[in-house]
Amino acid sequence: MTKNLNHKKIELLAPAGDFACFEAAINAGADAIYLGGDKFGARAYTHNFSEEEIIDALKIAHLFQRKIYLTVNTLVKEKEISDLIPYLTPLYNAGLDGVIVQDLGVLMLIRDSFPGLELHASTQMTITGVYGAKFLKELGVCRIVPARELSLTEIADIKRETGLAIETFIHGAMCYAYSGQCLFSSILGGRSGNRGRCAGPCRLPYTDAHGHTTYPLSLKDMYTLPMIPKLIEAGIDSFKIEGRMKSPEYVAGVTAMYRKYIDLYLSEPDKPFHILPQDESLLRSLYIRTDICKGYYEQHNSRDMVTLKEAGYSGSENDVLNSIRANYLESSKTLPISGSIRILANETTELTLAYNNIKVIVKGDIAGTAINRPLSEADIHSRISKMGETCFSLTHLKVITDNQSFVPVKSLNELRRQACMELQSAILSHNTPDRASTTYAPLNVKEQPASDITNQLYASVTTLEQLEQVVVCPEITGVYIAVDLVIDEKLQKSVFRQMKCAPDKKYYLALPYILRKRSYGFLEKYAQLLNMDIFCGVLIRNMEELQWLLDIDYSGQYISDYTVYFWNRQTSQLLDHYFVRHTLPIELNRKELDQLTRSDNKSAFEMCIYGRLPLMFSANCVRKTLETCTHDATEPYVLTDRYRNHFPVVQNCRHCYNTLYNTVPLSLHSQIVKLKSEQYGVYRLDFTLEGARETAAILNYYSNLWKGNDSIPFPYTDYTNGHYKRGVE
Fold it and tell me: What is the pLDDT of residue 473?
């Protein structure tokens, strides 16, 4: 049976950290290249491109019918966002094909300022399912780079339900955490992954509960060459190679190999698909971290995906590198063109050059009659065939001459130069993206009433013991209750009983940090809970949950947690259509928060002032990697770093993800006077790992502090101010 492929062509998308890598990608057969400029890109430590280099690259790419996507995939601060339009304008005018975006405010600004420019949602947006993809499609996104943790089934669902183009990673390094949901490097060292400055703490050694030191957070590199048929049949449109910090040899070698096998399968889809051992060996030799795996496409997590041992980088043999250099780096790719030239005495000289269906005709001087030696066909062919520094190679030239005419060499050279320039311009005009204006449908918003509370103290809880302490604290006026606690049949009655003990408080459901297809079976239960009169609203952790609530037309209050990022007022203006309050970002400092919240209604903001910060969320399970999966873990698994800091890892077995928490809690008690003067709507205490006694002690301390009594000592000696003072660059 002949396979019905969904694609006529699969885009092979290669990385470029500098111009040499860009040329390597072009020569090796990439259909598109993604690269970063000197601003707004998530690879701060690579060379990146100047404005002039990007414009030059666009010319080359479009000559060869390739595309360039610019990475604008960081969170952008309020003080920076005014630079975005001037930064993109010359690139847009030069024919930029698309932008890869993380920040929602940036997305909307680009959408409204640059008509027709393709908007691609970065994997940093943590799109884990159909709901989040639908939300972004409504905003104008045409392509999704989903979370790398998704299975082929989940990816196929997004493609089928939304019709969006799908771009996925097929080769290279993998993050342990869900991209865009990792603060590990940021909180520990001030180098934020959301700003392209990750220090890679997941690549370091950690000691487990049994005293064994391994590398449990370091994933193997992805290698999917044998999976090409399955990836294509899943409906993926663009195959993305990771590696903007890699060498030109790596870019060329990897690109060429995936080009070979993509084309092989598309040309012979019904034949058995096999990878030659020498080809796999070559890919393994091109900068592989310890070992390879196939990613998450066919497994949710696995011990086999983790290195466990110290990363060792394979080096390529000289003959392999020399072969790659000879084939892809030492000579530039050219466009094969044909032509014809007409040189007849006393007539205007005429040169025609053609590339595919694009043709130009250039007229030159009037040919004279030769006195001594007329121009021969060989002479004419020799002069016109010299393409020099152009991107062309003349493969065929028809010469029409009477063998009696003469044209000066200078005139022939000028004729050739002019024809090449005009052909290049014609090709560029033909290949430059259509800038047809796009009309967007009105947003399906959920207009929330303005927040009418100020300086309220709220708490979030994850256990029944914490809830029991919170409900008896009079200073706590609102409570976020983890939804998993409420749907637990063994605990639900006890939870409701505690809520009834304090009917004057406002109660909200706190949804999971990660929502995947495997959790959709719980959504009906969530909806039933939300429709109960005892809940005022919901704490939303991601765009999946937002779109689901919009789909069911939930009428309660929507509050965004700090995992729904907004770093600029452009983003907050968008989110205002959906949320009554926004939880302030964790990574911004005091000055930046002031810039962000400069408005007439500061009650629309909420701030976490106490709690163990989640440093990362991961699909892989630390307990499963180091011991075994029990599906009922109740106690955190503790990892210890080389400085003897202890990081609790909590397994959410219902939704199958891990949360790695900071070793010490965030506490802004020393800043409470300044913070209360800001007049934010809510100040929140987040309880995660605390037992009943610890919860009671924290509540007692903050209750007294809230009333102006600062005589009670803070219960912990070790804590952090987070980024409130220092922020991130």
Answer: 97
Tell me, yes or no, whether 146 lies in a domain. Answer: yes
- CA dist 16 and 251 (Å) reads 8
Cα angle 461, 462, 465; round to 5:
80
Which whole-number Å values give the CA distances from 279 to 258, 584, 587, in the listed order?
10, 49, 44
- Which stretches in the chain have pLDDT values below 70? 1-8, 41-46, 288-290, 312-316, 437
Residues 6 or more apart from 372 whose CB is under 8 A from it?
A: none
Question: What's the domain count of the chain?
Answer: 3
Q: What is the pLDDT of residue 290?
A: 67
Smallest CA-to-CA distance from 281 within 317, 251, 243, 328 is with 317
Location of structure tokens 């996104």: 141
User: In sequence order, which ranges of 362-491 are alpha helices (DSSP H)?
Assistant: 377-384, 409-431, 464-470, 483-487
- Residues 417, 312 share a domain: no
Answer yes or no: are the C-beta atoms of 462 and 687 closer than 8 Å. yes
Strands of 41-164, DSSP E: 67-72, 98-101, 118-121, 143-144
Q: Are residues 567 and 599 in the same domain?
A: yes
DSSP-derived letter for residue 24 is: H
Residue 579: what pLDDT? 96
Q: Where residue 477 sits, what CATH number does that domain have?
A: 3.20.20.60
Q: What is the DSSP string of 202-250?
A: GGS-EE-TTS-EEEEEEEPEEE-GGGHHHHHHTT--EEEE--TTS-HHH
pLDDT of 599: 76
692-699 long-range Cβ contacts below 8 angstroms, 24+ apart? 692/465, 692/466, 692/468, 692/469, 695/465, 695/466, 695/469, 695/470, 696/469, 698/610, 699/459, 699/469, 699/470, 699/473, 699/475, 699/476
**3-class DSSP assignment, residue 32:** strand
Q: Where are the beta strands (DSSP E) in 612-652?
A: 614-618, 637-640, 646-652
Residue 195 covered by a domain: no
Please tell me the predicted confidence (pLDDT) of residue 316.
64
- For residue 121, what are the domain limits? 11-174+220-329
Confidence at residue 1, expressed as pLDDT on a 0 to 100 scale: 43
pLDDT, residue 283, reads 87
- What pLDDT does 370 receive? 85
What pLDDT does residue 371 have?
83
Q: For residues 194 and 585, what is the distance between their CA atoms, to the nearest angstrom? A: 12
